[in-house]
Every structure is written in structure tokens, then in C-alpha cells.
Amino acid sequence: MQLLLNNLVEKNRQWTKHGKVANYIPELGKMDSDRLGIVVVDTGRKIYRAGDYQTKLTMQSMSKPIALLLALLDNGEEKVFRKVGKEPTGDPFNSMIKLETLNPSKPLNPMINAGAIAVTSLIKGISKEEKFFRILDLFRKISKNPNLDINMDVYLSEKKTGDRNRSIAYFLRDIGILEGDVEEILDLYFKQCSIEVTCEDIANMGMFLANQGIDRESGKSIAPMHLTQIVKTFMITCGMYDASGEFAINVGIPSKSGVSGGIMCAVPNKMGIGVIGPSLDIKGNSIAGVKLLEDLSEEFKLSIF
Ligand code: GLU
């Protein structure tokens, strides 16, 4: 496995030249476009690392499945899915077009920005600080990294420039999906997206989902299995932006990508995978990361289908 991972990273690194680093959040534009790295953890607690696996990145949209899990734990399915749907959109992650055309109107799923902002608004806590701490605490637990924290530069950069998310959020309040202080909800969402991680943290989070919500060291259940199944189903149907269908065919692993170039994968009952590759394709997925996962999935027959 180790040798194969080293080879696959070097084979696929050339793809980084064919994409672009996201720069609509100015601070993300500073990432090195030629980076590519991967960490794989398996149920036998083996861990394999290759390429630029030490490069740090922010969670961005990889935070959405985890925030969804927390909102489901806090509120139950009925309440969460009153505010957000269960269907793929076929539109880009930050699109708002269907919010106005669908009737009754609600974000189509929790993996697009509109849905994720609605989900974050449901996270419980008596103050905004407590809400964020509860999110961070879950991320720390499932990544097995008690030191996770926000990257302040990325957070402030998005807070300053996030007008599209701001428009989405105000629209959501207008149609009754968001309740409460919009700026406070957005702040929480920007913070959750700015949590800084490494591939190993992402791989551990993927492993937690792959392991049906059970901590693989203590054997303790952190979330009920059926909630982690809901989360993984969204990852397969909507996790790779509007390339989710193609990714499901070519890779077949529940995965969520982020505009920082990360991909978090959960191979049910087998492994967690974390990828970094900040150079993105036109849909917003790590261009070399996707190719790397195609090869890995093919090699080890990881597709769930
Ligand atoms: N914070 C980013 C945004 O809302 C996350 C986008 C993503 O990773 O897809 O625009």
C-alpha cells in the first residue's frame, strides 16, 4: 500500500498543472497549486501517508457532513429535513437559482451552501461561542486531534468577502428557513469552514464515518449508525459538487470535497482517506485528488457499488 500510494501521488501530480487554486476567498489563493498528498487509515489502525500530506488546509465544504451530523444529533431528522431537502441540485455549490423557482422553497440538500447555512443555524448552544465550541469539539473528537482550531486569516478573509453567502442567508430568512440573527449564523458557518486540518485529520474523520459513528479506539458510539448513513448518502449523491454522479461512477466512495482542495472519503467498514490538492477543476474539486482517488479505488476495488 505504501509504495503504491507514493507512486500514485507522483503519477498524478502532473494534473495539478491543469487546474486553478480557488481565489474567491482571497486567502485561499495563497495555497501552493502543485501540492498533492494523501493519508489512508484503515480499520486495523494502519496508517499510510504520501506526498504533501503535511500541508495544512481549511475544512471549507468538508465541514458540511460533520455539521449536518451535529444538527441531526441536536434536532432529529424531522426538524432538520423540514428546513433542507434530500435531493442533488446539478447546480454549483454556491448557486441560489433554485431557491426562488422551487415551491415550496427550501435548499435542495445540506451539501450546497444554502443547505449548509440552514443546517448550521440549527446547531444548539446558549451563546454563539458555545455553538462554535460544540462544532469544534466534535471535529476534535472525530479527528483525534485535540488541537484543531480556526485559521484566523482564512476566516477573516471569507467573512470580509462572503457576499454571495450573505445574499443566500438573507434570502433564506426571507423565505422563513433561517430564524434569528443572520450575521451570527454566517459567522458560525465561516468559522466552521475555517477549521484548519491536515490530511491525517481528514482521514480520521472519514474513518469515523466509515466506522458507522463508532470511535475505533475506544469502541464507543459517538453518533447512531443510521445518522452516519444519512451523512454518507449525501456524500455519495451530492458530495462532489455537480460532478457527484461522475465521481460515484469513477470512484464510488462517499466523499466530500472543499474549495481548499481537500477531499474527505469514507469507505464503509474499511477505511478513511484524506486528500489535499489545492488546484481545482472547473466544478471545484481537486483536479489531481480526483485522479488519485480514481486510481486508488480501481487498484483496491473500493467502490461501494
Ligand atoms: N466557505 C466556502 C463557501 O462557502 C466553502 C465552499 C466549498 O468548499 O465548497 O464558499
What does this 3D model show about the protein?
The strands form two sheets. This protein has a five-stranded antiparallel beta sheet with strand order 2-1-8-7-6. With 305 residues, it is an alpha+beta fold. A hairpin with a 4-residue loop joins strand 1 (37-42) and strand 2. The protein folds into two domains: 2-57 and 198-300, 3-Layer(aba) Sandwich (Beta-lactamase), CATH 3.40.710; 61-193, 3-Layer(aba) Sandwich (Beta-lactamase), CATH 3.40.710. It has 13 helices and eight strands. Glutamic acid binds next to loops.
Précis, in short:
The strands form two sheets. The chain has a five-stranded antiparallel sheet.
CATH topology of the largest domain: Beta-lactamase
The CATH C-level name of the largest domain is Alpha Beta
**Euclidean distance between termini CA atoms:** 22 Å
**Number of self-contained structural domains:** 2
CATH architecture of the largest domain: 3-Layer(aba) Sandwich
Q: What would you call the structural class?
A: alpha+beta
CATH superfamily of the largest domain: DD-peptidase/beta-lactamase superfamily
The unique ligands bound to this protein are: glutamic acid
Q: Helical segment tally?
A: 13
Which SSEs are present, and which pair or pack?
Blueprint: H1 2-12, E1 37-42, E2 47-51, E3 57-58, H2 63-75, H3 77-83, H4 97-101, H5 113-120, H6 128-143, E4 149-150, H7 152-161, H8 163-174, H9 182-193, E5 195-197, H10 199-210, H11 225-238, H12 244-250, E6 255-257, E7 262-267, E8 271-276, H13 287-300
Antiparallel strand pairs: 1-2, 1-8, 3-5, 4-5, 6-7, 7-8
This protein binds glutamic acid.
Glutamic acid (GLU) binds next to loops.
